[in-house]
Amino acid sequence: LYEVPSASASTFPQHFQRLLAEADETDSIHDVTLQAGDRTFAAHKYVLSMRSDFFRKALLPEGCKVGVGDGEVKKGEDAVGCDLLVLEKVPSEMLEQALQFIYTNSCEMLIHGTRPVVPRSNQSSDPEPQQLIHSLQALGLENRSALDVYRSLPANAHEDAEKPKTKSTKSGKKGKSGNVGESGQNPVKMLQGVAKKLGLGSLSAR
């Protein structure tokens, strides 16, 4: 063997990523539209059915549809008359990640170092760290310790801070399953739950 054969890396993931990214409700290639929250995603029945048991059952004719929970999917038509599936119990950000996995066998939240996007309804109202730094600088507190600031507070502020917290503050604590409470759910756990709901066992395992 005088010439060493070389095989280039597969370009399927890039092609399928482009197919998903360029899909539009008005094109002539997509044949189903998914809606979650206020966002819609044009997709392709064959790809969804090959990767997801949930979509395979949901896309069967009405008389043969089995295994899809009541109220989880509502069917309709999109702008050009193709099937429309409304997923009321799936956050749009999690559906976007699941579709990336269905088409490319990967998604942003499987990449180390990616900062996941928390669904809007669960985003915390806490300010960004940079805003806190600017606020401390404006008050001249950036170089003072927390204890020093605490001692400089009025006496009534000390009393308020030392009062026992009510039971209502426990809503943000972790439950038995380890998920963060309503104040900020764990996006990785949320994606895992959506993956199980959509029949994506490999995504749930990873």
From TrEMBL:
Protein name according to UniProt: BTB domain-containing protein
Record InterPro entries: BTB/POZ_dom (IPR000210), SKP1/BTB/POZ_sf (IPR011333)
Specify the domain of life of the species encoding this protein: Eukaryota
Q: What SMART domains is this protein classified in?
A: BTB (SM00225)
Region annotated Disordered, chain positions:
154-206
Q: Which residues form the BTB domain?
A: 30-111
Q: Where is the composition biased (Basic residues)?
A: 166-176
